[in-house]
Amino acid sequence: MTVTIAAMSEITRVAPWSLRALGYSFGIAERAVRFLAWAEAAHGQMLRTLRTREHQIGGSTGLPPACRMRESRRAWRVDAGGKHLFEVGPPAIDLLTCDVRTGGAGHVALINAIGAGLLAGLCDLAARRLIGCIAIFRSGADDELPDDVASLGWLAALPSEGRVLFLRGTAKPDAAIILSLIRSWSVQVDGVYEPGIREDVRRVLDGLPGAHIGLSGFRPNPAVIKGQALLDARAMVLHPVDYADRVATAFRSGVAMDLVDLVHLYELEKRTWAPTSERSRAQAGYGKY
Amino acid sequence: MRLPAYLENVLAAFVDHAGRTATMRWLRRPEECMTASTLSAMKSTRVSFAPVLARRMIQQRWIIKRERFHCDAGGDGHGVYSIRAGSHKLTYIARCFRWDGIEKVGRRSDGANRDMFGAIFLRPPDEERIARELAIFDLRDVDRMRTDSSVTGWTPANRSARFFDHVVDSLTAGRQPDPGFLGSGTGYLLRNGGYLGSGRNGSLSFEGFPEGHAIRHPFFADLFGLFLVRQVSIDLVNGIAAARSPKAAQLAPDIARYIGVGNSSGQGMCVALQRWPHWVSTWLTVRELALAFAKSRPANEDMRRAERLRKLISRASDYYRSIKLQCEDYVVSTDVLARNIAAVKPWIAETVHNGAPWGELVRRAEAQFDGETVEQLNSLLLEIYPEFADACAGYLSIGAERERDLAPEMTVGELKALLRCRYDWALSYDMRLSGTRRHFWYHSADNGEQRRGERVIDPHEEFESFIDHIGLVQRLASVLTLYADDQHMAEVVSDAPDLAFAVSRVQYLADLPYAEIRENLIHADFIPAHLIRFFLAALGMECTNPLSIRYVRGVFFQGMPLPEEIARGAGEDWIFPMQPAAPELDGAAA
Fold first, then answer.
1. ipTM (interface pTM)
2. Is residue B314 exposed (0-12), middle (13-18) or buried (19+ Cβ within 10 Å)?
């Protein structure tokens, strides 16, 4: 493996075109690239999946749209039907955000999605919107994840002291623990969709092959925002992860990656370039018209 | 119209409530100044980026010291410059290549085949690091050239062969070049080859600049790189001449100061303007507020300002009279501009005598002259209230850092109302005829340069760059009809994820003035050069000159003090430089 350093802005500039080459429209690629770059900085190896899973990702762009269903006043079920989180991830966070902002709490069960390596980045979006977010997840058997990302587990992202605090669950998800944490972190006692969380835990532990991501959103109370959650985390033996620092470091110093992955990113981009022709050259602007 | 809080505070610091009302009365509405032709007429002002950077350099007395520069008679060599920018130390290195006899007119189309490459280091590097960067330049292979985050960007540049050779030949012969000849080429020796920074080739991302750094400001790194290219061009002609003859002259300061750095820009600028509408809003809000303030002030309140305007008009008129553009097909000719702007001069005394606000002077010009003359007058008005314009310019970096996010809780009804209120001009635009959708922008295999193709005829329409904001808004409005007014945007975006960009664009621009360009860029008759000129004027280029409908040339930093003058404490008043007189005697031998 030959290691190279890519700049974050390089990824965000080139990757929208690489994603276009895979079949995404401008609107989706433009949004997805922020999560791709974030995940590369936080975990590494996300760009690799554009190379190793190119056909899977490209194929997913032509699948029928995700299907959403209201399960309760503040819960959605979204069947991604094999689509990637590049496409279905941000809208899932939008559904969650909307319910939290309008009703105090929300839950989205996102099933059959690939690309679980983006999950922490999606939770980061929720937290930057000042929403507490817990993701209970199990990736699909055919998903490829960065080494830093577990295939099964749970993760909390909280707005705390002006940044996003990430806490990783250390063991298999436990509904009782997660519910008690949300109750202690939420601004309102009833800010929990308990049936959804219990179902999430059951689904991720049931051993079936399909991917399941349960997203719970809530309004964090002032103590969480002032940093109390970190103390709770230590007491609960959760692992704080400073993804924000990793991302800031990536902006300052770049991101180390396998050269072949960066080269592939550029190769994908170049597929969107029209071949040079006399007609194309005539559009370059030299000459009077 | 609502102003950003920063600019409201600026205004409050200068005027009372009545003054604010007067200023806001003179503020132009977006429909008056957001069409392509009106934007095209706008000129560089003191709130354009290059003049803002230049003021910072001059006021802080940045020190740019040539540590070494060596080249042979063919121009092969390198230079190292140490820089003190305020409290920050940087280093610039330049690698100049032997002339291969090929004039390279494109920006990126020639890949790594440039006549010069430079690199700005964020901190002083050691000799080993400098050697490594120079070795990267020597690869001259765009696919293998990579740097790292210690470098803010590369400054490729190409020779303007005819003028470069004239200067070198003159100096080699022991005399100064002919300023008139230089002026006929708009006065540059090296031409910008397209700044490669902000992450390109592995360089430092903009967000990675340390807080408060001297060049952590939109376009400062790019433009400072151009200023350094200008210095290299001067050192290079001196170096080649010295290598060719022991009796060679060195470029006289008056002529060196008259040399700028050339720039040609193409259609990619239109894509950038559409992609980053909050940039457009920021530049124009600063500019228009500064202009409205100046227009609102009584002409007789301070005779020194009237006198300053009179002098500036004379200089502008002389400047336009002195330059010769290669092509004036798409612009008001410089002779006409010179004549028109001079005709305004006698009106100043009348405006002062009547105690009218400066805006009345502009109205009189609007009634009599073309848009470019009026915009030149507007630009000069900003100069006579520098304290206000400079205070407004503080918003340039703040406005550019605005983050776009979607508000998923907004209801469909609320977004529809927003569309009706802010995008009525786009919704009522008729896109049915094929001519309204004739063009699309795409990346060419020529190193990814943006080109414009015709639908049906040209390939790769499926990979078109985003430029059609009217179509985007119309599609969004159309999709929204499928939803009840009390549904939320989260549901819309969940069903149509590609619309997230459209929704967030409408939402985050809702409270920004001057954000959307009111023009259909994909129309058969749209002239890209209009928006390219606007972008270049916002950057601070004087005298933008379209050579075709897609390609605009010009020069940066012509007349700006030289590094040694900046270090000594040069004056800030350098715009509209006059062509130096031809030296009567041969220059001093080196």
1. 0.95
2. middle
B353 touches chain A (CB under 8 A): no
Judge whether B413 is closer than 8 Å to chain A, CB to CB: no
What's the CA angle centered on A261, arms A258 and A262, to 5 degrees? 95
Residue A151 · residue A122 · CB < 8 Å = no
- The minimum CA-CA distance between A170 and chain B, rounded to whole Å, is 32
Q: Which of B359, B275, B288, B273 is nearest to B513 (CA)?
A: B288
Instruction: Give the minimum alpha-carbon distance from A230 to chain B in angstroms, rounded to a whole number.
Output: 27
pLDDT one-digit tens code per residue, A234-276: 667 688 999 999 999 999 999 999 999 999 999 999 999 988 7
Torsions phi, psi of B332, nearest 5?
A: -75, 130
Which B residues 284-323 touch A at CB under 8 Å?
Answer: none
CA B279 to chain CA mean position, Å: 12
Q: Do A8 and B463 touch (CB under 8 A)?
A: no
Interface test with B, best of A40, A280, A289 (most B CBs within 10 A): A280
B120-168 tens-digit pLDDT: 999 999 999 999 999 999 998 888 899 999 999 999 999 998 899 999 9
- Nearest by CB to B200, which of A10, A91, A129? A10
Give bridge partners of residue A3 from the DSSP assignment: A258
Say if CB B65 and CB B57 are below 8 A apart: no
Task: Decide the pairing of beta strands B188-192 and B260-265.
Answer: parallel
- What single letter denotes the amino acid at residue A40? E
Nearest CA among A247, A222, A227 for reference residue A46 = A247
List A residues 71-90 in contact with B (Cβ-Cβ < 8 A): 78, 87-88, 90
Asked if residue A215 has pLDDT above 70, the reply is yes
Interior/surface letters B415-451, b for 16+ CB within 10 angstroms, e for the rest: bbebbeebbeebeebebeeeebbbbbbbbbebbbbbb
Query: Would an 8 Å CB–CB cutoff place A195 in contact with chain B?
Result: no
Give the nearest partner residue to A274 out of B443, B500, B550, using CB atoms: B443
Name residues whose C-beta falls within 8 Å of residue A270's C-beta, 6 or more positions apart in sequence. Answer: B445, B448
Could you give the angle at the alpha carbon of B528 between the alpha carbons of B522 and B530, nearest 5°?
125
| B502 contacts A31? CB cut-off 8 A | no
Beta carbons of B218 and A20 less than 8 angstroms apart: no
Q: Are B540 and B50 in contact (CB under 8 A)?
A: yes
Distance CA B315, CA B323 (A): 12
Q: Phi and psi dihedrals of B380, rounded to 5?
A: -70, -30
The closest of B146, B145, B139, B181 to B164, measured between CA atoms, is B181
What does the domain layout of chain B look like in residue ranges? Answer: 57-262+560-585, 298-384, 412-508
Distance CA A110, CA A67 (A): 10
How buried is B569 (Cβ within 10 angstroms: 0-12 exposed, 13-18 middle, 19+ buried)?
Answer: exposed
Residue B568: is it exposed, middle or buried by C-beta count within 10 angstroms (0-12/13-18/19+)? Answer: exposed
Contacts of A84 in chain B (CB under 8 A): none
B445 in reach of chain A (CB within 8 A): yes
Do B409 and A101 lie within an 8 Å CB cutoff? yes
List, in order, residues 6 or more apart from A104 with CB less than 8 Å away: A187, A188, A190, A191, A218, A219
Q: Is A163 an 8 Å CB contact of chain B?
A: no
Residue scoring higher pLDDT (B522 or B113): B522
Kindly give the pairing relationship between strand B77-85 and strand B63-71: antiparallel
What's the sign of the alpha-carbon dihedral B316, B318, B324, B328? positive
Structure tokens at A281: 């050259």
Contacts of B488 in chain A (CB under 8 A): 98, 102
Name which of B205, B207, B409 is nearest A97 (Cβ-Cβ): B409
Nearest CA in chain B to A20: B463
